[in-house]
Amino acid sequence: MIKHALFVGICLLLLPFTVQAEPQSAWTSLLDSGAALDDNGSIVVGHASGDAVVAGISHDGIEGSDLLVRRLAAKDGSLVWSRRIPAFDDSDMSVAGLAWDEAGDLIVAGHVMGCVG
C-alpha cells in the first residue's frame, strides 16, 4: 500500500514537467447540402474497426430535415456507407442516440418533430 502511494506521489510530481503536444486532426469530413440547408452531426460512436459512425440531421431540399447516419473510415474519413431516414410531410427528424447491440448491429434512436399523418 505504501509503494502504491509513493508511486502516485512521484507521478503527480512529474506531471507538470511532461510536454503535451497540440492535438492534430487525422482527417475531416464535410457534408454540405447547400448554403440554405441544415446539415448537423450531433452524435458519434466508434465502430470495432476504428471507424466513426456519425448521426445527425440533413436537409435534402425536399420537405423537412431527415435523419442521416454515416460510417466514415478511420484511415482517411472516406464514406463507408450512408443511410438517410426521410422526414414525413413537413416534419423534421432528429437523432437521440446511437448504440451497438450484442450482435454488432447499430441501433439508431430518434424522433419526428411535428405531426405525422
Gross morphology? globular
Distance, first to last CA: 66 Å
- Tell me what portion of residues adopts beta-strand conformation: 35-45%
What's the overall average pLDDT, rounded?
Answer: 79
Number of strands: 6
Our Rg estimate from Cα atoms comes to 21 Å
Helix tally equals 1
Cross-sheet strand order for the largest sheet = 1-2-3-4
* SSE succession: HEEEEEE
Biggest pleated sheet: 4 strands, antiparallel
Query: Roughly how much helix do the residues carry, as a percent range?
Result: 10-25%
Given helix and strand content, the structural type is: mainly beta
Low-pLDDT windows of residues: 1-13
Question: Overview of this structure, please?
Answer:
By secondary structure, the chain is mostly beta strands. It has one helix spanning 2-14; strands at 39-46, 52-58, 66-72, 79-85, 92-100, 106-113. The strands form two sheets. The protein has a four-stranded antiparallel beta sheet with strand order 1-2-3-4, with no helix packed on it. The protein is globular, with a radius of gyration of 21 Å.
